[in-house]
Design goal:
alpha/beta; Rossmann fold; pyruvate-formate lyase- activating enzyme; OB fold (Dihydrolipoamide Acetyltransferase, E2P); six-stranded parallel sheet; five-stranded mixed barrel; 15 helices; about 35% helix; binds 5'-deoxyadenosine; binds iron/sulfur cluster; iron-sulfur; S-adenosyl-L-methionine; transferase; 4 iron, 4 sulfur cluster binding; tRNA-2-methylthio-N(6)-dimethylallyladenosine synthase
């Protein structure tokens, strides 16, 4: 029997990194690796890192330091850093932390097997080149392992928007879309392996413009084609930019049965002055009008967002404008962050807001968002919603899944299995999840 080696991957950051980690595991499958959940038994450890917020690199270095004892115990253990910190720091990582054998950027990991062969020979391997070849194409020959009911599928990568606070255009590169036929092929393959819900991923997913039959396809066109795949029951997509919400995509939210009533549409701030300084190219007003149009197409849609507080030169008045926007939109979910300086981005050079002011604003914003989130979840009580069950819950006989609106839902009923899509009457709203009773399987 071939020598089976174990690969431990720790994933930080966004869903695109989760998808990339799966692809890395598949690529390394070709080099004789199976994945493990236990770093102590690994022959190779990969940290798939995120660079979006402050101290990301420092956290990676301290995590790496923790592997020293393991490496001493097991000299053959190889350690790699992947993802956006790898892209941003490059060679510096191996200089600062000699334990590291391999550094691979988010656009180069399809070459991991060749890199692994080099590190096994005792060399160090660094690859942060942007691909001349299509990384996803190289990874097409995958083993047909069975999958859980939900999956991510990256359709678009990179970003040309250059928001003044953001490192993504530098670490992930220019905006690029995968050809529609490739996406559809991967989706059909996932469905054959048991997947019933696909979340299309991209840093700017609604800027999708992949080559397809008759010219470039929009995201709406891609969603309609996915809608025709038998066995695929649910479609989601994230993350979107307000400026790329075209009419067809808005209409799809009202008309496409498999497209779920949930939309993540980051606005970052409600102050036009700050939005301009952020280089966001939309206004408070244009965002609110957009939300109106989306709700006209799909009145029950749950909107989620991202917010940054304490962006350079943000005044109390600017912050208040963000709070007003939140009141006006009424979010079902949100992610909120204190602005953190990212070296190399334009905003890093501007006058900064004091840390205690940022913390205090974040607290107020999160209190408001939490109230809205709570209200949106509580409003589900008494309604009957679709739930795709994913796994057993903590209590005996309990199953957990996600509702159409992405709320976690518990049901105790031995008729449901992971992968079942059922109608559930919601009876109770708990701190972090809903519970209900099966209406139909
Ligand atoms: N500081 C704080 N938050 C940031 N984000 C991106 N860059 C920064 C930064 N420098 C947030 C934005 C984005 C989300 C993914 O991360 O809100 O939408
Ligand atoms: Fe970053 Fe999103 Fe702005 Fe692109 S649109 S620069 S990914 S925050």
């Amino acid at each position: 029997m071939a020598d089976v080696k174990k690969l431990y991957i720790k994933t930080y950051g966004c869903q695109m990194n989760v998808y990339d980690s799966e692809r890395m595991a598949e690529a390394m499958g070709g080099a004789g690796y199976v994945t493990t959940e236990d770093a102590a038994e690994a022959d190779m450890i990969l940290l798939n890192t995120c660079h979006i917020r402050e101290k990301a690199a420092e956290k990676v270095y301290s995590e790496l330091g923790r592997f020293r004892a393991l490496k001493e115990e097991k000299p053959d253990l190889k350690i790699g850093v992947a993802g956006c910190v790898a892209q941003a720091e490059g060679q510096e990582i191996m200089r600062r932390q000699p334990l590291v054998d391999l550094v691979v950027g988010p656009q180069s990991y399809h070459r991991l097997p060749q890199m692994e062969a080099r590190v096994r020979e005792g060399e160090k391997a660094l690859d942060t080149d942007f691909p001349l070849d299509d990384k996803f194409d190289t990874l097409r020959q995958r083993p047909k392992a069975k999958r859980g009911p939900t999956a991510f599928l990256t359709v678009q990568e990179g970003c040309d928007k250059f928001c003044a606070f953001c490192v993504v255009p530098y670490t992930r590169g220019a905006e690029a879309s995968r050809p529609a036929a490739r996406v559809l092929e991967e989706a059909r393959d996932l469905v054959e392996r048991g997947v019933r819900e696909i979340t299309l991923l991209g840093q700017n997913v609604n800027a999708y413009h992949g080559a397809g039959e008759g010219g470039d396809w929009s995201l709406a066109r891609l969603i309609w084609a996915l809608n025709d795949i038998d066995g695929l029951e649910r479609i989601r997509f994230t993350t979107s930019h307000p400026n790329d919400m075209d009419d067809d995509l808005i209409a799809a939210h009202g008309e496409c049965a498999k497209l779920m009533p949930y939309l993540h549409l980051p606005v970052q701030s409600g102050s036009d002055r700050i939005l301009k300084r952020m280089n966001r190219s939309h206004t408070d007003e244009s965002y609110l009008r957009l939300i109106e149009r989306i709700r006209a197409a799909r009145p029950d849609i749950l909107i989620s967002g991202d917010f940054i507080v304490g962006f350079p030169e943000e005044t109390e008045e600017d912050f208040q404008a963000t709070m007003d926007l939140i009141e006006a939109v009424n979010y079902g979910y949100a992610f909120s962050f204190k602005y953190s300086t990212r070296p190399g981005t334009p905003a890093a050079e501007r006058p900064q807001v004091a840390e205690d002011v940022k913390s205090e604003r974040l607290q107020r914003l999160q209190a408001l968002i939490t109230r809205q989130q709570r209200a949106a979840q509580d409003a589900m009580v008494g309604r009957t919603v679709g739930v795709l069950f994913e796994k057993p819950g903590r209590m005996a006989g309990q199953m957990v899944g996600k509702s159409d609106y992405l709320h976690a839902v518990h049901v105790t009923d031995d008729r449901v299995q992971p992968g079942d899509l059922a109608q559930v009457e919601i009876l109770e709203s708990g701190p972090n999840s809903l519970s209900g009773r099966l209406v139909s399987v």
